Amino acid sequence: MSADEFDPEIERLFGRTPHMTDSALFTAQVEKRLEQGSRVRFLALSLAGVIGGAVALREALTVDVSLGEASGPVAGEALNQGVRAAQTQVDGFAQTAMNAVGLSGMEVGSLGAMQLFWIAAAALVAVAAAGAMKLAQDV
Q1: Separation between Cα atoms, residue 57 and residue 50, nearest integer Å
Q2: Residue 113 and residue 12: Cα distance in Å, rounded?
Q3: Residues 6 or more apart from 61 whose CB is under 8 A from it?
Q4: Per-residue pLDDT tens digits for 48-88
């Protein structure tokens, strides 16, 4: 058999995919794994969004907007009073929401930024280790 005859025959043989008896089961298993991965990803992104939103809300509530005497004594003081009133209302709303969810006793204000960073880093390492173990078990 010459090279010119061999190449088309190989292409023809590999051009057809053989039918496997368990192809439906394989397809179902692959779809199940893809669905599980998307649920975990959805939960992880949702949790990250909630935590990020809580941190952003906390930082927004602790902003000190004080214009002082730069825009005039009357206008600056009126704006400062409005900001303080809005902050008080938002604080009350946030506290009510925390009480409704059952997180009123949660105290993270005493933790510093570096402590929160290391806690988050340890949590990420734990999640990565759990993912690696799950991946190792699936293979």
Answers
A1: 10
A2: 64
A3: 87, 90, 91, 94
A4: 999 988 888 877 777 665 555 554 556 666 667 777 777 77
